[in-house]
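Supplementary notes for students who missed Thursday's class. We covered one full example, reproduced here. Read the sequence, then the structure, then the short commentary at the end.
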Amino acid sequence: MRGWLTRIGVVLLLLVGGAVALDRLFPPDLSRLASGVEVLDREGRTLNVLPATGGTWRLRTTTADVPPHLVELLVAAEDRRFRWHPGVDPIALARASVQWIRAGRVVSGGSTLTMQAARLLEPRPRTLRSKLIEIARAIQLELRFGKDEILGIWLTLAPQGGNIESLRAGSLAWFGRPSARLEPAESALLVALARRPEALRPDRHPEAARAARDGVLAFRAGPHARLSAEDLALAAAVPVPSRRLALPRLAPHLAREVAGDAGGPGRVRTPLDAQLQRTVEAIVAETLRGLPDRASLAIVVTELATRDVRALVGGSWMEEGRAGAIDLTRAVRSPGSALKPFLYAMAFQDGIVTPRSVISDLPVRYGSYAPENFDRGFAGRITAADALRMSLNIPAVALLDQVGALRFASALKAAGTPMRLPRGADPSLPLALGGAGATLRELTGRYAALGA
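Structure (token representation):
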């Protein structure tokens, strides 16, 4: 007897060892979990979504990203014993086999949610061989991940029609809201869509989508369901969406930038405010309608107290005639008269003048350089405050001559606004009138510091 027990123990040990070795040699392929990039505002609201490789709209989704009733609906409709089985449900497989033998065709697949997750990770033709591989992969997933993590794989890869995958992307595309705010009827539709995403697309097959959704809702009609009969009746009365919505595309220039900086998929939080960004983009779009075809416009809105950027429009996104692919907030341009307030502030700080000091706005020449005002006129004797308000050029150049062009440029650089000069050139008097390059972001940051 002892010998038989020893032999059985050795066989079991070999089987376990072989299974572990196979698991290590042939691990599950998780590459399809690669998701796109979601850019968030300061409160976690979605600003922009960039697709995963291949153009699929896929966002990493966990059980924490969806309401509890969605998980309940999913488990009730697809795999009631999900929390208890080891990846394979023998009862469901036996039932599916009997139905297959009796009907001569596949009536139900007997797939658990874990097996479905395995199939979503590695799609294969529906054959017996594929089913056996799914079973093996399901057991591997159960050994490697917890139940909620396996649900996360399903939620991330579940097809939602067209090139949409994941419940979070599906929620944005069909309902225009985060998945955490889904109502029961909406959750049921997304769960149903994963079964036959093209045949149940609500924009193309609304009646089929409604019937499938109501079928999923019916799984929660039992005595222990969290959804009452009244709730289910109200949910069933909700119409299915008639069209697919565009995924959020706010702040596209910044989204492209931060997605590259992130170095991979996931969520990137920015200091922007989604509502303010939407308003600013609407203002830009309206303004551009009155500008020439090749004109463009960029805006940066910065909060003085924190100096954080709250809205950013880099241009007319992807309009070729308006150079829409270029982020104009990062383009080096002449700041024009935008440097004058900093120059006057430095002159006030040095005691060269005060706002009430009377200065001269008359013709003057510095060697070969003779600055002029925009209107080619002269104001004569004027206070420094009025000269700044009127943005006069000649008094500004005179102040820079006293402050020192090199010193002024060094102060700007130390404050985070380096002046780009032609190669080999040194700062000179035209710097007062924008004779160097800077970006809109840099200038806006300096103005925020000046106003704080």
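Commentary. Residues 4-19 have pLDDT under 50 and may be disordered. The beta strands are 37-40, 46-50, 57-58, 164-165, 266-269, 299-302, 309-313, 358-361, 380-383. If anything here is unclear, bring it to office hours.
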